[in-house]
Amino acid sequence: MALITPTPPAEVASAINATFQPLADLAAFRLPALRNAAGTLELAQPHQVFTLGLSDLVADNGLTAAQPTGWRYLIQDGATALASAEAVSTGSGNEHVFSAFNEGPFVASTAAALSSLQDQPQVAAGSYEPRLLDVPALHAMALWLHATGAGEDLMVPLAPSPVASPAGQAVPATQFLQELAAQAAAVASVGPSDLTGG
Protein backbone atom coordinates (compact mmCIF):
# COMPACT_ATOMS: atom_id res chain seq x y z
CA MET A 1 0.00 0.00 0.00
CA ALA A 2 1.15 3.50 -0.72
CA LEU A 3 -0.33 6.39 1.18
CA ILE A 4 0.50 9.54 -0.74
CA THR A 5 0.76 12.42 1.69
CA PRO A 6 -0.71 15.51 0.03
CA THR A 7 1.09 18.84 0.04
CA PRO A 8 -1.15 21.61 1.38
CA PRO A 9 -1.04 25.03 -0.24
CA ALA A 10 1.65 27.27 1.25
CA GLU A 11 -1.10 29.47 2.70
CA VAL A 12 -2.31 26.56 4.83
CA ALA A 13 1.09 25.81 6.33
CA SER A 14 1.66 29.51 6.95
CA ALA A 15 -1.72 29.99 8.66
CA ILE A 16 -1.22 27.05 11.01
CA ASN A 17 2.44 27.73 11.75
CA ALA A 18 1.74 31.35 12.61
CA THR A 19 -0.33 30.15 15.57
CA PHE A 20 1.32 26.83 16.35
CA GLN A 21 5.00 27.78 16.44
CA PRO A 22 4.88 30.67 18.96
CA LEU A 23 2.81 28.52 21.33
CA ALA A 24 5.15 25.57 20.88
CA ASP A 25 8.22 27.75 21.52
CA LEU A 26 6.74 29.02 24.80
CA ALA A 27 4.94 25.80 25.81
CA ALA A 28 1.87 28.02 26.11
CA PHE A 29 -0.88 25.78 24.74
CA ARG A 30 -4.21 25.67 26.54
CA LEU A 31 -4.79 22.01 25.70
CA PRO A 32 -3.32 19.86 28.49
CA ALA A 33 -2.00 17.24 26.07
CA LEU A 34 0.09 19.85 24.27
CA ARG A 35 1.02 21.92 27.31
CA ASN A 36 2.34 18.83 29.13
CA ALA A 37 4.17 17.29 26.18
CA ALA A 38 7.59 15.96 27.14
CA GLY A 39 9.23 16.15 23.73
CA THR A 40 9.36 18.43 20.72
CA LEU A 41 5.99 18.96 19.07
CA GLU A 42 5.77 18.67 15.30
CA LEU A 43 3.06 19.10 12.69
CA ALA A 44 2.66 15.87 10.72
CA GLN A 45 0.45 13.95 8.29
CA PRO A 46 -1.51 16.78 6.64
CA HIS A 47 -4.82 15.90 5.04
CA GLN A 48 -7.57 17.91 3.42
CA VAL A 49 -10.92 18.17 5.21
CA PHE A 50 -14.23 17.74 3.38
CA THR A 51 -17.77 18.16 4.70
CA LEU A 52 -20.88 16.32 3.55
CA GLY A 53 -24.44 17.38 4.38
CA LEU A 54 -27.53 15.36 5.18
CA SER A 55 -29.41 16.32 2.02
CA ASP A 56 -26.57 15.08 -0.18
CA LEU A 57 -26.47 11.79 1.73
CA VAL A 58 -30.21 11.24 1.38
CA ALA A 59 -30.08 12.18 -2.33
CA ASP A 60 -27.24 9.70 -2.86
CA ASN A 61 -25.04 12.38 -4.42
CA GLY A 62 -21.88 10.54 -3.43
CA LEU A 63 -18.48 11.93 -2.59
CA THR A 64 -18.60 14.41 -5.45
CA ALA A 65 -20.92 16.45 -3.22
CA ALA A 66 -18.35 16.65 -0.41
CA GLN A 67 -17.15 20.24 -0.01
CA PRO A 68 -13.51 21.04 0.77
CA THR A 69 -13.45 23.16 3.92
CA GLY A 70 -9.84 23.21 5.06
CA TRP A 71 -6.78 21.23 6.09
CA ARG A 72 -5.84 19.33 9.23
CA TYR A 73 -2.48 18.29 10.67
CA LEU A 74 -1.77 15.89 13.49
CA ILE A 75 0.44 17.33 16.22
CA GLN A 76 2.91 14.70 17.30
CA ASP A 77 5.30 14.24 20.19
CA GLY A 78 7.64 11.73 18.60
CA ALA A 79 5.40 9.01 17.17
CA THR A 80 2.45 9.87 19.41
CA ALA A 81 -0.37 12.07 18.09
CA LEU A 82 -1.54 14.37 20.86
CA ALA A 83 -3.85 16.77 19.05
CA SER A 84 -4.72 18.24 15.69
CA ALA A 85 -4.41 21.70 14.17
CA GLU A 86 -6.82 22.88 11.51
CA ALA A 87 -7.04 25.74 9.04
CA VAL A 88 -10.23 26.63 7.20
CA SER A 89 -10.71 28.17 3.80
CA THR A 90 -11.84 31.79 3.60
CA GLY A 91 -13.41 31.11 0.22
CA SER A 92 -10.88 33.30 -1.57
CA GLY A 93 -8.45 31.22 -3.63
CA ASN A 94 -6.04 29.29 -1.46
CA GLU A 95 -6.37 31.69 1.47
CA HIS A 96 -6.83 29.92 4.81
CA VAL A 97 -6.98 31.00 8.44
CA PHE A 98 -6.14 29.03 11.55
CA SER A 99 -9.26 27.47 13.04
CA ALA A 100 -8.57 25.32 16.12
CA PHE A 101 -6.48 22.87 18.07
CA ASN A 102 -8.31 19.71 19.11
CA GLU A 103 -7.39 16.79 21.36
CA GLY A 104 -10.66 14.88 21.08
CA PRO A 105 -11.13 11.18 20.33
CA PHE A 106 -10.99 11.62 16.54
CA VAL A 107 -7.31 12.56 16.84
CA ALA A 108 -6.35 9.21 18.36
CA SER A 109 -8.55 7.25 15.97
CA THR A 110 -7.09 9.08 12.95
CA ALA A 111 -3.53 8.30 14.07
CA ALA A 112 -4.41 4.68 14.80
CA ALA A 113 -6.07 4.26 11.39
CA LEU A 114 -3.13 5.78 9.53
CA SER A 115 -0.66 3.48 11.30
CA SER A 116 -2.68 0.29 10.84
CA LEU A 117 -3.70 0.63 7.19
CA GLN A 118 -0.73 -1.30 5.81
CA ASP A 119 -2.05 -4.41 7.58
CA GLN A 120 -5.48 -4.23 5.95
CA PRO A 121 -5.80 -6.35 2.80
CA GLN A 122 -8.41 -4.03 1.25
CA VAL A 123 -5.81 -1.29 0.88
CA ALA A 124 -2.59 -3.25 0.54
CA ALA A 125 -2.41 -3.13 -3.25
CA GLY A 126 -3.71 0.36 -3.88
CA SER A 127 -2.45 3.93 -3.91
CA TYR A 128 -4.41 6.45 -1.86
CA GLU A 129 -4.41 10.04 -0.71
CA PRO A 130 -5.70 10.34 2.86
CA ARG A 131 -8.43 12.91 3.44
CA LEU A 132 -10.89 13.56 6.26
CA LEU A 133 -14.64 13.38 5.67
CA ASP A 134 -16.77 15.15 8.26
CA VAL A 135 -20.55 14.74 8.50
CA PRO A 136 -21.29 17.19 11.34
CA ALA A 137 -25.02 16.52 11.56
CA LEU A 138 -24.37 12.85 12.37
CA HIS A 139 -21.23 13.40 14.46
CA ALA A 140 -19.43 11.14 12.01
CA MET A 141 -15.88 11.35 10.73
CA ALA A 142 -13.94 9.01 8.47
CA LEU A 143 -10.51 8.80 7.00
CA TRP A 144 -11.23 9.01 3.29
CA LEU A 145 -8.76 7.04 1.20
CA HIS A 146 -9.05 8.68 -2.20
CA ALA A 147 -7.79 6.31 -4.89
CA THR A 148 -5.09 7.99 -6.98
CA GLY A 149 -5.00 5.18 -9.52
CA ALA A 150 -7.27 2.27 -10.36
CA GLY A 151 -9.75 1.13 -7.77
CA GLU A 152 -12.47 2.69 -5.69
CA ASP A 153 -12.26 5.08 -2.78
CA LEU A 154 -12.33 3.57 0.68
CA MET A 155 -13.54 4.90 4.02
CA VAL A 156 -12.18 4.18 7.47
CA PRO A 157 -14.80 5.13 10.09
CA LEU A 158 -13.17 6.94 13.00
CA ALA A 159 -14.16 6.15 16.58
CA PRO A 160 -16.54 7.09 18.01
CA SER A 161 -18.55 6.08 14.96
CA PRO A 162 -22.34 5.97 14.46
CA VAL A 163 -22.24 3.36 11.66
CA ALA A 164 -22.22 -0.43 11.73
CA SER A 165 -18.95 -0.77 9.83
CA PRO A 166 -16.13 -1.30 12.34
CA ALA A 167 -14.19 1.79 13.30
CA GLY A 168 -10.63 1.65 12.04
CA GLN A 169 -11.39 -0.79 9.22
CA ALA A 170 -11.39 0.21 5.55
CA VAL A 171 -14.69 -0.35 3.75
CA PRO A 172 -15.89 0.64 0.27
CA ALA A 173 -16.97 4.26 0.20
CA THR A 174 -20.38 3.28 -1.20
CA GLN A 175 -21.04 1.03 1.80
CA PHE A 176 -20.09 3.74 4.29
CA LEU A 177 -22.22 6.36 2.53
CA GLN A 178 -25.23 4.01 2.45
CA GLU A 179 -24.96 3.50 6.19
CA LEU A 180 -24.80 7.26 6.73
CA ALA A 181 -27.69 7.86 4.33
CA ALA A 182 -29.94 5.53 6.34
CA GLN A 183 -29.23 7.58 9.44
CA ALA A 184 -29.57 10.88 7.59
CA ALA A 185 -33.03 9.90 6.36
CA ALA A 186 -34.17 9.44 9.95
CA VAL A 187 -33.08 12.93 11.04
CA ALA A 188 -35.96 15.36 11.33
CA SER A 189 -35.83 18.14 8.75
CA VAL A 190 -34.92 21.57 10.08
CA GLY A 191 -36.40 24.35 7.98
CA PRO A 192 -34.51 27.51 7.09
CA SER A 193 -36.80 29.55 9.36
CA ASP A 194 -35.83 27.54 12.47
CA LEU A 195 -33.66 29.99 14.38
CA THR A 196 -34.11 28.43 17.81
CA GLY A 197 -30.86 26.48 17.69
CA GLY A 198 -32.51 23.32 18.95
Topology (SSEs and partners):
Elements: E1 2-3, H1 10-26, H2 32-35, E2 41-51, H3 54-58, E3 67-77, E4 80-89, E5 96-102, H4 105-116, E6 127-135, E7 140-147, E8 154-157, E9 171-172, H5 173-185
Parallel strand pairs: 1-6, 2-6
Antiparallel strand pairs: 2-3, 3-4, 4-5, 6-7, 7-8, 8-9
Polypeptide structure, described:
The chain is globular and about 50 Å long. The protein is of the alpha+beta class and 198 residues long. The relative contact order is 0.16. The chain is built from 5 helices and 9 strands; from the N terminus they run βααβαβββαββββα.
Keywords:
globular; nine-stranded mixed sheet; alpha+beta
* Rg estimate, integer Å: 17 Å
Q: How many H/I helical runs?
A: 5
Write the H/E string, N to C: EHHEHEEEHEEEEH
* Biggest sheet character: 9 strands, mixed
Low-confidence stretches: none
Number of strands: 9
Shape, principal axes of CA atoms: globular
Helix percentage range: 25-40%
Going by helix content, strand content and strand pairing, the class is: alpha+beta
Distance between the termini: 44 Å
Proportion of β residues?
25-35%
How confident overall, as mean pLDDT?
89
In short, what is this structure?
With 198 residues, this protein is an alpha+beta fold.
